[in-house]
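Data card: per-record layout.
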Amino acid sequence: MLPEQIFSIVNFAALPGWAALALAPLRRDLAVLAARVVVAALAAVYLAALVGGMLGVGADSGRPAGMPDYTTLAGVVALLGNPFGATIGWTHFLAFDLFVGAWQVEIAGRRNIPHWMVLPCLALTFMFGPIGLLAFFGVLALRRRAA
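The structure for this 147-residue chain is written out next.
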């Protein structure tokens, strides 16, 4: 499968997980479960793409062959500097950001944090990953002080 096809599929696949989290007040437990199912699917795609890349499967389609060097900036640039490596990296981001979003909704439910306080954190996590996590930590701190 070409990187463009994988990219389109994983981008579309992540959306139902985020939609479930946004609608979480209706059934928080089901929303978290739905998001985790999507995360698992993204992780499976990531694993298959990564293993395929390391084994050099389809090397003629721009896939990096062999284990990339994550210890240098040049190695990471080389990995992400081609369509297949960028798709692997993007799938990684999608899976982890969605996992963090599901965790936020789950923790908010356990601590009785209103969903409207979590929605901005989810939006930030969806768009900017760690900034959304930082915002959620801020919400947790505010709620702890108020308690």
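Known properties of this structure: The first helix runs from residue 3 to 22. DSSP finds six helices and no strands in the chain.

See the next section for split statistics.
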